Amino acid sequence: MVEDEPRLMLLVAEDATQIRQINALAGRSGWRTRIVADGESALAMLADTAAEKPQALMLDSWVAGDDSCRLIGRVRAAAPEMPILFITGSASPLLAVEAMRAGATDYLIKPIASERLIYALESSVEHALASDELAPLTEKIETQLDFDMMIGSAPTFRTALARAAKGARGHSPLLVAGEPGTGKELLARAIHSASPRSRGPLIIFHTTGMAPAAIESALYGHERGAFPGAFEKRTGVLQEADGGTLLIDDLERLPPALQHRLADTIMTGIVKPLGASHSFRVDVRILATAGTDAMTLSKQGILEPILAEAFNGNSITLPPLRERQIDIAPLTRHFLKLIGEQPGLRHLGVTDDALALLEGYAWPGNLRQLQAVLFRAVVFCDRDALTEQDFPQLANIVGEIGPRAADVAGGVTLYGPDGHLRSLEEIEADVIRLAIGHYRGRMSEVARRLGIGRSTLYRKLADLGIDNAA
Length: 470
What we know:
The protein is of the alpha/beta class. It is 43% helix and 13% strand.
């Protein structure tokens, strides 16, 4: 096959609407789709030595019903290395566990969000080229949406969290920046939950997978006949979020002209649907996520200056997990607790050797990847605790394990880049941030553990310029 030729996905499905959606999204992501209506046809294609072999298979549970796991097992036997993506209408993690144990790589819950489908497809390629264990899996584990659920003591993370908690009290536009998988959407949800608008709606608008021409209509809505194909009137997400918060995911994907229009809406609150003769005012707070802060995106020519200015000074950057080594152990235990509460799974511990292994990996997929790897390990573990044996691919990548992060000054850096000791004031500030994070902002407990009075603690916070909002 020519190297630049679109990759082939075998879709086993019957629903015409779903087939059209998947076909369109896959096409925009560089995939061709071959459709079969049943499992036997899929197996026959895999067995045909003259047929082109697909790079991934997507199976709708509606096709096989109660025999879905059996069919997955047969497909896995026929194509041991091929990623299998399982589509289900059930939100129960129990079905995901059964499908994974049968051989599925990932699963998607109907209705399938466009960005979720694209992520699953791209991850399936990484899965085929890298290793089974590191293939991302987005399991649906519900978590509380508050700042107490944001686990971590690393100073950069606590600073970001403090800025977010302070920003939650305001009404200005706010941009949460960071690499994929760092928890941007979770933090944005927590900001909304802690804001004066918490009783209002939170509408999340994913731009990934949408054609640029469709984004404006989705944001602002349109009247019937506004453009070819506009057969019905549509309400935009800006109107749906009136009185609450609109989270725009991947802000940098907005076309330039739409960026100008959104900046004007932020300043005036005026919304005019496409094709409408009237406009109206909405009361919406705009949150957004992006790969980096607004000013950097503007300098790179990705974000229009007028929109970047709307977020100027209101950007929060979440650090990648590789810069939060001290947080991997508590995050691991937190994720294991959540995973253990899912039907069909159990609460597992984790050994120090396994933690050292997890701390030694760079985690390019950040929190999302850590949670996925732990979920997969728990599914197949038959002991009471995860050990190094449950992460064989990590052991090959990490190699010889160094000292655990928990054993290196509690996450406080003692030496600067020049090799000399940092100032006592800088170290003290890091220790206080660490304590605030560890005790979840309970300032009386922080003061008691540090051996100082509460008033002394607040004086130090002011002197060191530390925001205790977290």
